[in-house]
Design goal:
The protein is of the alpha/beta class. It is 34% helix and 27% strand. The relative contact order is 0.15.
Length: 242
């Protein structure tokens, strides 16, 4: 059974290709800088029209086409807005489409704000599904305390179970439906993760997994791959049962 770090290592081994189609030098330079520390090679291509605002194409490690997205929308996923999960349905940008476009693409140097915004998209899918279990990992009890109100609303207003992992002790009372695995030890203290088991649907399975390799700088990926989610969930369940 692969652990959390093994999952990141697998994604890291698959470099993707990002084609930036634009005639604007500033835009091309912006993406080259943003992806300079990611596991993706950036290639600039001339846009078909000078009036075109441009677009990006993602290709996998075998250069197979994975998707295309306008540059303005692509910027939204690189710096997403933070909304509570119950409000994302009404957001101006369809975040699910944006995140699916970049799934299983390694990111680096995400800060806490970007991680929180990405976590909200995973939680929003659980909110809409109204079934299943959400797994979340916190590196310490203080980080958990700041998010308790979000998770308590999720279990109050939806038919969800939530299992929370925290590296140190957490003795505060939580709402029914939330299980806390404290003193989890092992890998938990190095990772930020939010994983949704799909509530019985492979199409709803999704997750975010990242390692804090330096203070407030996270390195990882998000995924909608049901097999990968099943493997991560199995690993987390083994921790909660031990």
């Amino acid at each position: 059974m692969n652990g959390l770090r093994d999952q990141i290592d697998e994604i890291e081994a698959r470099q993707k290709l990002l084609e930036v189609h634009t005639d604007r030098d500033r835009v091309a330079a912006e993406f080259e800088q943003q992806f300079s520390t990611r596991n993706a090679r950036v290639v600039r291509e001339s846009s078909a029209s000078s009036a075109d605002r441009g677009f990006v194409i993602i290709r996998d490690a075998d250069h197979e086409f994975r998707g295309a997205l306008g540059i303005d929308h692509f910027r939204a996923v690189l710096s997403p807005e933070i909304h509570p999960p119950w409000a994302l349905e009404d957001a101006d940008v369809e975040y699910s489409d944006l995140f699916e476009f970049l799934e299983n693409t390694l990111f680096t140097s995400y800060d806490r704000r970007q991680m929180l915004a990405t976590s909200r998209e995973i939680e929003e899918r659980a909110w809409r599904t109204d079934a299943g279990t959400l797994f979340a990992g916190f590196q310490n009890s203080a980080a958990l305390a700041s998010q308790v109100s979000v998770y308590e609303r999720l279990v109050r207003e939806r038919n969800l179970g939530i299992t929370i992992f925290v590296e140190d002790e957490y003795d505060e009372r939580m709402a029914d439906g939330i299980d806390v695995v404290s003193d989890a030890g092992g890998e938990i203290g190095a990772f930020w993760f939010v994983i949704f088991d799909g509530g019985g649907s492979d199409l709803r399975k999704c997750g975010l997994l990242a390692e804090e390799r330096e203070p407030d700088r996270y390195y990882g990926f998000w995924t909608y791959d049901p097999d990968r989610i099943d493997e991560i969930v199995s690993s987390l369940r083994s921790l909660s049962d031990s």
